From TrEMBL:
This is Thioredoxin domain-containing protein. The lineage of its organism: Bacteria, Pseudomonadati, Planctomycetota, Phycisphaerae, environmental samples. It holds the Pfam family Thioredoxin_7. It comes from the Bacteria. Gene3D superfamilies: Glutaredoxin.
Amino acid sequence: MPRQRWSGFLCVLLALGVASPATAAQKNTKAGNQGSPQSSARAATPAGPKLEWLESFVQASKLARKQDKLILAYFAGSDWCEWCKKLDREVLQTPMFVEWAKGNVIPLMIDYPSPDKDQPRAVAKQNEILAVNYNIAKVPTIMFLDADGEVVNRAGYDTSCLRPEEKKGSPLLAMAHFAEVLKGRPTGQQMKDYAFLDAAAMTEKTGQPVLVLITRPDSKLAVETRERMLKSTKLAKFVNTNMAFVNLTWPAEDDASPQAKWFRKFVEVHKIGPAPIQLVMLSYGARKLQHKILVIDQIDGVINNLAQQLPRFDYGGGWLTDYRKAQSISAQTQRDILLSFTSFDSSEFCQKLDTEIYQKEEFKLYAKKNLVLVRVDFPKNSEQAKELKQQNEGLADQFDIRGYPSMVLINAKGQKIGTAKYMKGGPTAFLKELEELRRRDFERRTLTSEQVEVKKKK
C-alpha cells in the first residue's frame, strides 16, 4: 500500500488532536488489564472453519438489510497491532466464534494495515472515512451496526477478549456479550406512529411539522418500500426527533367507513394524488401542505430531502441536555457541538469551569454564534431520568471519557474534532483553543492533505 496515503491521513488527524486508530493503539500500550500480548504464549490458529470477512461497507449494509442481521464491524491493525493479533487468535478465529458469526451477523473488516501491506485504494479511503465517522480512537474495536450504519453497541479489547481464567478456544464471556447484544437488538428505533389528530395537536404546541406516509396496498413495491422505511433506525431517529409521524393506507374504493371518508376528504383538501407511495409533510398543526416526496429510494436521500424542509430552530445558545436534538440543530445551523462532560455536585474543577468560563459573557457570545452546547452531567447526589442517564453513559463510553470536566468538540457532520480539559486563563484562553480546533477541522474538510502540509510549513 502506498505509504503516502496512510501517513497523509495520520498527519491530518494528528494536526486536529484526534488520534487515528493506529496512533491511538500504538500509544496505548495497555489495551486491557492483561500483560503484553507479545509476552503471552502464541497459540496456533485454531483449526476449523474460517470466517469470510467483507471489506465493503456498502456490501455489508445491503446484506444486513436483506438478511435482517446486524453488521459486526471489526476495526483492526491486522499486521502490526499485537492486541488485534491476540484477539484474532483467541476469539475471532476460534470455531466457536466463526460458527456463531456465520449464522448471526454480517462480518465486516475495517483494517488499518502498515504501509508494508497492500490495500486497495478504495478500501483504504473508505476505512479512513469510517474511522472519523465512528470516532474510532483505538484498535481493536468491535462495533455492531444496523443496516443504516447506526451504532447498536461498541466493544473494546477488554470486553471481547479471552479471559485469563477461560480455556483456549472457549471465549465464553465474550460470546455471551455478543449474544446479549443480539438479544437486546433494537428492532429499529421504531418510528413513533401518531393518530392524525394527535399529531396535529402535538405539533401545534411544538411547532414541528407532521409527516404523513401514504401507501396503496395494491402496489407490492410500495408495500415493500414502506416496510424498509419503517425498519430503518436512521430514518426513525431523524423523524422522531424532528416531526410527528402518521402512517396511512389508501382505502379501497368500496370502503365506506368513517376513517375512509375522512381520508378522502383529507386528500381532496390537500390535493394529494393516488401515487403508490408518498410522503406528505404538513406544517405544524397539520395546517397546510408543505412538501411532497413521490420518489422514495435511498434512506439518506429521503432524510436529506426532508431536512431541507424543516422549520428553522430558534436556538439562542443555551445549554441542552438532549444530544439528539443538539445534532439536529447542529446539522441545520452548521454549528459545532460542544459536549461538556461534568459532575457539578462532586467536582471542584467542574464548578471552576462553569464560573470561570461558561458564565462569562465572552464565552456566551461566542457560543451563541458558533456552538451548540450540550451538558452531559453525572450527578452523585441526585437522581437522573433513566433515559438521560443512559444517553450520558453512552456518550461517555463513545468518547472514552476518563474524568470530569472533559470537553469534546464535534462538527456538524457528527465527526469528532478534538478534546479539551479545564484550563486556567478564563474564556479567552479556552476559546483560542476551540477556535484553533475548528479552524483545523475546516481545513481538513476543505483542503487536501498535501495542502494542509504546505500550510503547516509556512
